[in-house]
Amino acid sequence: MEVRSEGLQVRCEKVASGTPPVIARTRVQVWFIRVCSSILLWTALVQLVTVGELWQPHFFTNITNKITQITPFPIAAQVHAQPPPPPLLQARNYTSNGYLKVSCNGGLNQMRAAICDMVAVARLLNLTLVVPELDKTSFWADPSNFEDIFNVKHFIDSLRDEVRIVRRVPKRFNRKSGYKVLEMPPVSWSDEKYYLEQILPLFVKSKVLHFNKTDTRFANNRISLNLQKLRCRVNFQALKFTPQIETLGNKLVRILQERGPFVALHLRYEMDMLAFSGCTHACTKDEAEELKTLRYAYPWWREKEIVSEERRLQGLCPLTPEETALVLQALGFDNETQIYIAAGEIYGSERRLAALRAAFPHIVRKEMLLDPVELQQFQNHSSQMAALDFMVSIASNTFIPTYDGNMAKVVEGHRRYLGFKKTILLDRKRLVELLDLHQNGTLPWNEFAFAVQAAHEKRMGQPIRRRVIADKPKEEDYFYANPQECLCERTNCDDLLGPNNSSSIQ
């Protein structure tokens, strides 16, 4: 830019020097000199625009704004085409007690909840959190890293006023440097006292601590309000999916919404769930044996010998596709209902989906709505595929899970946060009783349908207090399914929940 200006100036000087030494110049000569001067002036102004965008002091910003309004040059317009990013939050100033590394275990939503817990633990103990590692050894064997699923920059920046988050520990704390990191799983369902008294002192000896398991390691209840709200903030705001996932997820939602209202059915009739739970109702003998073999293949699935029918009668099995079809009809959904199946491969494939598809012909999956090329980047990445189903489930008019696993619970809580969107929480124990009575001819259809609807009148995702069971945290309601501390920003919690909705058990 400077070379061109100097050349232009030289040419103008040559023209000027060639002018006859007369007092009165011709109009052409005056016009020519003015053109040269104007070009030099615009060149300098354009350079000023560039400098102003690089430095961004107030003086240059004001000038460049004025130039943009008057200059006809395309370069100036391009400079202001993109809006400036939002200002970063003020970073929290604290002395870090050490680095917390975490390896999340389980599927996408189990890991999601664990990440929220670990941010809260890091905040409680004044630690520096290392971007979490995701499970690559589970049933799904998904090789995805954190940054393949979540927007890591947004995650770090959006929480900087609470917790310092880094992508990796300093080199001096690396194993390659000979530093031995202390590894351990924290005790499940632990409260703040445990972390302050048992975990924090460990950082005095070891500046880096690695939690190699993170599922359900933080209590549901009796946690300070600021930490409960921080868990919600991480879950609902900081954990954004990558632009690639969000773009495709939004496209799926748009396609479905253009066709009308839709139900997201989390049909958890998948091989891993059936093997883990030992549920083989309506399976063939060979399928039951295959599921048992798989259960024994994973040593961390502790229960091995399981009586399927006993578990089913206790309401501990996911509904079969055939049972689900009858329940949906009894709840009042007709054959025009658009149903999106938010799940992986259904065990038994289309053979097991036949009854459900016959009752509800407008069943779709992401593979049916998107071009295979669009899904190609997500193939063999179950957590990324689950992220697409998660987005559709959040946006659906009605969400119905057939099993209360991690995705069902996290989606339920997210929909409560978004205004208590309709979520039908199936009472499987009651449904199994009704289904067996109906299918053996004891209970007519009209009575069956009435009983199903009555059983779920207060299971539609409406406001309700989270259940507390003293000394039995595993039996309490899950925080992420009903984060009640985060649902009362604009109203009084007592008015919202009401005394009749209390489900505390002491």
Automatic annotation (TrEMBL):
UniProt keyword Transferase, yes or no: yes
Record localization: Membrane
A molecular function (GO) term: glycosyltransferase activity
Membrane-protein topology: Single-pass type II membrane protein
Family affiliation: Belongs to the glycosyltransferase GT106 family.
One Gene Ontology term from the biological process aspect of the record: fucose metabolic process
Transmembrane feature ranges: none
Pfam families registered for this protein in UniProt: O-FucT
Keywords: Carbohydrate metabolism, Fucose metabolism, Glycoprotein, Glycosyltransferase, Membrane, Signal-anchor, Transferase, Transmembrane, Transmembrane helix
Record InterPro entries: FucosylTrfase_pln (IPR024709), GDP-Fuc_O-FucTrfase (IPR019378)
GO-annotated cellular components: cytoplasm; membrane
Pathway in which the depicted protein is active: Glycan metabolism
Name of this chain's protein: O-fucosyltransferase family protein
